[in-house]
């Protein structure tokens, strides 16, 4: 017996043309009708599997060449390669995780009629059940010598060529095809699941409780972002999709859940690019009697534990082969000092708006809402952000851009906030939380004035949240981190690759 891994009937390019799809679909629909009319069916409710492709590979990986195991199995997989010869047909069956095994359909084992039907009815992409003995072929290919077979699910559309890379547009629009044909896509899904498990494990080790907060809210808050707006027919009221869970998690902290976290979906009606998606996943956590220094240490631990879970080391390997070290203690810099050093101009909380405007104009920066804080942050992003490839906590932000953050304990005009930058983009943020309800009301009023002047990202005044604070919230450290961006750090991919089904236009 001989075998081959050469594909059969695959399109020449990465993706079949519209005419090829139409032609193949018509042929496959006809085969579907034949299967239904024969009584075998094209989509049986179940097939008698006894094991899986990964299990067989694990058990018999070392089987000697041209050897029979004596073990008869029933398994199923998707046909991704095939070659039909006179008395012997070969097919590579792929499991959902990408593991493959060869099916050998021979005249001697299945008979004339069954072999003829295999050649006529089985196409690339079909799910097929095979039953037979596990053997190693003359080329050492682990195989099932088929005694019986049946279609488990007939594919009506052809697969892309498995040897030609799909375009990025096809990958994100048709993730199901991406998962079938590309190992990296499957590995990214596994990495994301591993990261989620690791995050929860780290929180559990520090006695945090996981909760769920509303996605539909009557007042959006917890971040400076433009919300999606919807309407409830039942309540006849305007509602907003959550931009952040912060204000509800803080309500939980007021109620006595002193270490609380949530892994959630957030929605921001803003632009989409390589680091932003309108719908994204975030982990957010609050620790009573902690501050922004303690929550920074926890965030570093979470990310390093996630890297260890995925890569087995704090050094991760990106999709392009680059190794990136997330180990050790991460650098901490301050916003004002790093901006002063990079720009060559001393910038402090006392620097006037006119001076900051002049600095912005000198580098052609346009800042529509040119408050002191916004000017400082835009200038910092221009001069410093792109230089922060290695993990770096940027500490101590302007007060007017951080309405939910406690004033700095020793530096007037600043708040105790950090942003964590890795690979040049913000990955997480953390605060010493503002828990004084009087000051919080003042900050909300300032935000309302910004909103009245046209700032669509300004927060709204939330009376119920303020009332909760008036019952007393303990000193608290809080953090939020984009899960998609954490995956970007670990895998080296863009945000559309780390989200399983990203929103695309």
UniProtKB/TrEMBL annotation:
Subcellular location: Cytoplasm
Cited CDD domains: LysRS_core (cd00775), LysRS_N (cd04322)
Domain of life: Bacteria
Enzyme class: ligase
Keyword terms, alphabetized: Aminoacyl-tRNA synthetase, ATP-binding, Cytoplasm, Ligase, Magnesium, Metal-binding, Nucleotide-binding, Protein biosynthesis
Domain Aminoacyl-transfer RNA synthetases class-II family profile: 195-502
Main subcellular location: cytoplasm
Alphabetical list of Pfam families matching this protein: tRNA-synt_2, tRNA_anti-codon
Alphabetized Gene3D superfamilies for the sequence: Bira Bifunctional Protein, Domain 2, Nucleic acid-binding proteins
Reaction equations catalysed: tRNA(Lys) + L-lysine + ATP = L-lysyl-tRNA(Lys) + AMP + diphosphate
InterPro entries hit by this protein: Aa-tRNA-synt_II, aa-tRNA-synth_II, aa-tRNA-synth_II/BPL/LPL, Lys-tRNA-ligase_II, Lys-tRNA-ligase_II_N, Lys-tRNA-synth_II_C, NA-bd_OB-fold, NA-bd_OB_tRNA
UniProt xrefs under NCBIfam families: lysS_bact (TIGR00499), PRK00484.1 (NF001756)
Family the entry assigns: Belongs to the class-II aminoacyl-tRNA synthetase family.
Protein name per its UniProtKB record: Lysine--tRNA ligase
Organism of this sequence: Frondihabitans cladoniiphilus
């Amino acid at each position: 017996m001989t075998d081959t891994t050469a594909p059969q009937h695959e399109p020449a390019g990465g993706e079949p043309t519209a005419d090829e799809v139409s032609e193949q679909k018509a042929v496959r629909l006809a085969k579907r009708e034949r299967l239904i009319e024969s009584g075998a069916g094209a989509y049986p409710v179940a097939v008698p599997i006894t094991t899986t492709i990964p299990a067989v590979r694990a058990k018999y990986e070392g089987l000697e060449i041209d050897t029979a195991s004596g073990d008869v199995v029933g398994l199923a997989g998707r046909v991704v390669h095939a070659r039909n010869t006179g008395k012997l047909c070969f097919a590579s069956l792929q499991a959902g995780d990408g593991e493959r095994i060869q099916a050998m359909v021979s005249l001697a084992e299945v008979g004339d009629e069954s072999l003829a039907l295999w050649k006529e009815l089985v196409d690339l992409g079909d799910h097929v059940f095979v039953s037979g003995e596990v053997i190693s072929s003359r080329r050492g290919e682990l195989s099932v010598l088929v005694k019986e077979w049946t279609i488990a699910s007939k594919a009506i559309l052809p697969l892309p060529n498995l040897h030609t890379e799909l375009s990025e547009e096809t990958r994100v629009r048709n993730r199901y095809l991406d998962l079938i044909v590309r190992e990296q896509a499957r590995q990214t899904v596994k990495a994301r699941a591993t990261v989620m498990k690791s995050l929860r494990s780290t929180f559990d080790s520090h006695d945090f409780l996981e909760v769920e907060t509303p996605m539909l809210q009557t007042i959006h808050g917890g971040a400076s972002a433009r919300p999606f707006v919807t309407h409830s027919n039942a309540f006849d009221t305007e509602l907003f999709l959550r931009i952040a869970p912060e204000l509800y998690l803080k309500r939980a902290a007021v109620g006595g859940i002193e270490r609380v976290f949530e892994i959630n979906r957030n929605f921001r009606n803003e632009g989409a690019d390589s680091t932003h998606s309108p719908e994204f996943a975030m982990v957010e956590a609050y620790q009573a009697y902690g501050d922004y220094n303690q929550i920074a240490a926890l965030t570093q631990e979470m990310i390093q534990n996630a890297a260890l879970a995925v890569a087995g080391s704090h050094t991760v390997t990106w999709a392009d082969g680059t190794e990136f070290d997330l180990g050790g203690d991460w650098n901490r810099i301050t916003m004002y000092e790093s901006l002063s050093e990079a720009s060559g101009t001393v910038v402090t909380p006392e620097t006037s708006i006119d001076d900051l405007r002049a600095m912005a104009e000198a580098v052609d920066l346009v800042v529509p809402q040119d408050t002191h804080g916004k000017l400082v942050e835009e200038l910092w992003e221009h001069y410093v952000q792109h230089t922060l490839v290695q993990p770096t906590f940027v500490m101590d932000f302007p007060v007017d851009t951080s309405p939910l953050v406690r004033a700095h304990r020793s530096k007037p005009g600043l708040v105790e906030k950090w942003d964590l930058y890795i690979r040049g983009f913000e990955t997480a943020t953390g605060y010493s939380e503002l828990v004084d309800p009087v000051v919080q009301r003042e900050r909300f009023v300032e935000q309302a004035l910004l909103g009245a002047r046209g700032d669509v990202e300004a927060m709204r005044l939330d009376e119920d949240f303020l009332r909760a604070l008036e019952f007393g919230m303990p000193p608290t450290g809080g953090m939020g981190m984009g899960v998609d961006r954490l995956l970007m750090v670990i895998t080296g991919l863009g945000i559309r690759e780390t989200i399983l089904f990203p929103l695309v236009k």
